[in-house]
Amino acid sequence: MQVENAETQVRNTLQRFQDGYTARDLSRLDPFMELFVREGDAELIGIGASARGGNEWFVGPEAIREIIDSDWTYWGDVSVDVAGARISVLGDVAWLSTTGTVTQAGTFDEALPFYLQQMKELLESEDLDADGRLVEATHFGMRRVRERHKGTGHAWPFVLTAVLVRGEGQWRFHTIHWSMPVD
User: Which residues contact 23 (CB under 8 A, 6 or more apart)?
Assistant: First the structure.
């Protein structure tokens, strides 16, 4: 039996990540979380993040679980270019970069209550001054209007970068960063 090399193992972990986002099965969210390091310093940095600990910057397994639950419930269909991922490995640490798309799947109205709650949280944030809250909430709202205008089926491109750590014989995500081009 041939042992898989580290790059193949990391790519397989990325494929399992994609499989979870494809299935979007909330009953499988806890097993999906096994793809992340168990330590409290794991991070998932979303497309709207601009400050550590602020909007869309999630630290620790509980916070990451909450955003993935939200992604699977409200976000579109995610397609990560697993085959095209550039993967580098040094010992028990690996890093990767790849591209993908998120395609608007459900109707905008289904997610509207969730979006309004997020906007309310931005307006009530104590991490920003009044001007900052207004700017962030306005930007967030305009992005939702743009998504609504593009409609179901529109594919938004993104870049995904990640750091993985090998422990207990498994590659697990330590840090994931989603980014989208400015539009």
Answer: none
Q: Tell me if 179 sits within 8 A of 159, measured CB to CB.
A: yes
What gap in Å lies between CA 15 and CA 80, rounded to an integer? 8
Which class would CATH give 6-106+157-179?
alpha beta
Which residue ranges make up each domain of the chain? 6-106+157-179, 114-151
167 DSSP β-pair partners: 170
CB atoms within 10 A of CB 76: 19
Q: What is the pTM of this model?
A: 0.80
pLDDT of residue 30: 97
Output the pLDDT for position 165. Answer: 97
Residue 1's pLDDT band (cuts 50, 70, 90): very low
d(CA 174, CA 156): 25
How close are the terminal C-alpha atoms of the chain, in Å? 49
Locate tokens 């920003």: which residue?
Answer: 128
Helix (H, G, I), strand (E, B) or coil at 106: coil
Spatial contact of 23 and 155, defined as CB atoms under 8 Å apart: no
Are the CB atoms for 38 and 166 separated by under 8 Å? no
